[in-house]
Specification:
Blueprint (H helix, E strand, L loop, with lengths): L1 H101 L1 H25 L5 H15 L6 H18 L3 E10 L2 E10 L3 E6 L5 E5 L4 E4 L5 H11 L20
Length: 260
């Protein structure tokens, strides 16, 4: 009886141990699954965070690129507006130029007759003026007429030459000029010094300084001057040539013409 009891006890102990061991195995399996699931959750969360970070960085890069594109667009738009303004201004200028070109023929038709009239008027003026530098002045007018009938000279150049001739005539009005030439008098040819004081008076003195004359605009003839004026004319000629110091002198002048 005693032996049975011991065997019973041993069997019971073995069964209890096995039961305990089985109980531990059953409890351990769900815990392991939970741990594995938790680890997977953490791994998935980390992977998701990496994707979120990646998409955030991409979004930041795209936002920066968009800002650059927007700035470039505004800059391009401003430049295009500027170029468009230039093009519009150039087109307006081209239109004005074309209008000027279209009006050249009309301008030419008006300017050419005017230039011929200007040369005619200049020729008449020289013919009525005191006859100083007559040869040079008449030669200048002759060259102008030849130039007007020359095809290889531009219209602008022809007009400029006419204005130059008018300017030369204008300067004659306030200058004292001296030139040596020949005076036809009583069928004789006399070498003289001609001197004019602008368009006020015109004189001639023989090279030996023994005779002098004054041009009479009314009679178109030379009136002999008294010998008392010889010294003053000599002084005037020397001053005009820069050979004497400026000084006062008295000479007769033609009477002013009566107003018409």
């Amino acid at each position: 009886m005693s032996k049975v009891s011991n065997r019973t006890k041993i069997a019971t102990a073995l069964i209890g141990a096995l039961a305990l061991a089985g109980s531990n195995l059953v409890v351990a399996d769900p815990l392991s699954d939970v741990q594995k699931a938790d680890a997977k959750i953490h791994a998935d969360a980390a992977a998701s965070q990496k994707k979120v970070d990646k998409y955030y960085d991409q979004a930041q890069d795209m936002a920066f690129e968009y800002g650059q594109v927007a700035d470039t667009r505004e800059s391009t738009k401003s430049y295009n507006d500027y170029v468009a303004g230039l093009v519009a201004d150039q087109e307006a200028t081209m239109k004005l130029i074309q209008e000027d070109i279209n009006g050249v023929d009309k301008l030419r038709q008006g300017v050419v007759p005017l230039m011929f009239k200007m040369v005619d008027a200049l020729e008449q003026f020289v013919a009525l003026d005191l006859p100083f530098n007559k040869e040079a002045r008449e030669s200048r007018i002759k060259r102008l007429r030849e130039t007007l009938n020359t095809a290889n000279v531009t219209l602008a150049e022809k007009y400029r030459l006419i204005l130059d001739a008018y300017n030369i005539e204008r300067e004659y009005g306030y200058k004292m000029n001296v030139e040596t030439g020949k005076l036809q008098l009583d069928g004789k040819e006399i070498l003289v010094d001609f001197i004019n004081f602008g368009r006020v008076a015109y004189y001639a003195q023989s090279l030996d300084q023994k005779s002098a004359w004054m041009f009479n605009p009314e009679t178109k003839a030379w009136d002999k001057l008294e010998d008392s004026y010889l010294r003053n004319i000599t002084k005037a000629i020397r001053q005009a040539r820069g050979q004497g110091a400026p000084d006062m002198f008295a000479l007769p002048i033609p009477a002013a013409e009566a107003a018409q």
